[in-house]
């Protein structure tokens, strides 16, 4: 069974200084995965379970310019997937999104986040258990931080009314993002019948009205 406690600095694996080898382009968008963010665009980062299915939730949204899966929120530099799975890096499986705020708002992305996983499960998501499956919002500025916290406050009573426990989502300033291995990038576009372990609670998020 994978650990459900984040490692301490002395427990964490050492990692490596070299970044992960990566394909040049996004499999669907045909843009460089390391492309600089276009002027006027913004970034968002979410953890909500197995990143294969999470990435698919976002790449089809109008206004999303680029997606990438990776590891964030841990202690080990440039971890491998196998290392993350030990629970000894502290990383979460995340999706980083580059988007055009003129076409899709950060509030829209937050609604997708809340409604497409169960944010009350702690260090797991469905049958996937471990620190890498925790719910997380990683913010790039004070405005995103405020919006994320407000959305959590708005959604919590809805979940409670439906019989769910307290929200366990961590909301933190965006940490370092380490690209996952190439085969993880856009995995469900390359393997349409592949595993997708995420699923929502069926409880709608009211943030369009509350924010």
Number of DSSP-assigned strands:
8
H/E series: EHEHEHEEEHEEHH
If you average the pLDDT, what whole number results? 95
Query: What portion of the residues fall into strands of 2 or more residues?
Result: 15-25%
CATH class membership: Alpha Beta
The stretches of 5 or more residues where confidence is low (pLDDT under 50) are none
- State the CATH topology: Peptide Methionine Sulfoxide Reductase, Chain A
CATH architectural name: 2-Layer Sandwich
For the largest beta-sheet, the strand count, sense and barrel status come to: 6 strands, mixed
Number of domains: 1
Shape designation: globular
**N- to C-terminal separation?**
40 Å
Tell me the structural class. Answer: alpha+beta
Physical arrangement of strands within the biggest beta sheet: 7-6-1-3-2-8
Describe the protein.
The protein is of the alpha+beta class and 211 residues long. It has one domain: 2-Layer Sandwich (Peptide Methionine Sulfoxide Reductase, Chain A). Helices cover 25% and strands 18% of the residues. It is built from six helices and eight strands, in the order βαβαβαβββαββαα. It has helices at residues 51-59, 81-85, 106-115, 142-161, 187-190, 207-210, and strands spanning 42-47, 64-72, 92-99, 124-125, 128-129, 136-139, 170-173, 177-179. The strands form two sheets. The chain has a six-stranded mixed beta sheet, covered by helices on one side. A two-stranded antiparallel sheet has the order 4-5. Strand 6, helix 4 and strand 7 form a beta-alpha-beta unit. Helix 3 packs parallel to helix 4 (142-161). The protein is globular and about 45 Å long. The model has no long low-confidence stretch (mean pLDDT 95).
């Amino acid at each position: 069974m994978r650990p459900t406690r984040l490692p301490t600095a002395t427990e964490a694996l050492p990692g490596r200084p070299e970044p992960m080898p990566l394909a040049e382009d996004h499999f669907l968008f045909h843009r460089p995965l390391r492309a600089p963010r276009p002027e006027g665009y913004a970034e968002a980062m979410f953890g909500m379970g197995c990143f294969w299915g999470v990435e698919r939730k976002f790449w089809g949204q109008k206004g999303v310019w680029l997606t990438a899966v990776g590891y964030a929120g841990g202690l080990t530099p440039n971890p491998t997937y196998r290392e993350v799975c030990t629970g000894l890096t502290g990383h979460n499986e995340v999706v980083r999104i580059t988007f055009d705020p003129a076409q899709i708002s950060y509030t829209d992305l937050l609604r997708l986040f809340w409604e497409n996983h169960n944010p009350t499960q702690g260090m797991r998501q469905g049958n996937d258990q471990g620190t890498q499956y925790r719910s997380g919002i990683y913010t790039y500025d004070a405005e995103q931080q405020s919006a994320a916290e407000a959305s959590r406050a708005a959604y919590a009573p809805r979940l409670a009314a439906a019989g769910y426990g307290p929200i366990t989502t961590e909301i933190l300033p965006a940490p370092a993002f380490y690209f996952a291995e190439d085969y993880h990038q856009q995995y469900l576009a390359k393997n349409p019948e592949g595993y997708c372990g995420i699923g929502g609670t069926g409880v709608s998020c009211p943030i369009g009205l509350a924010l």
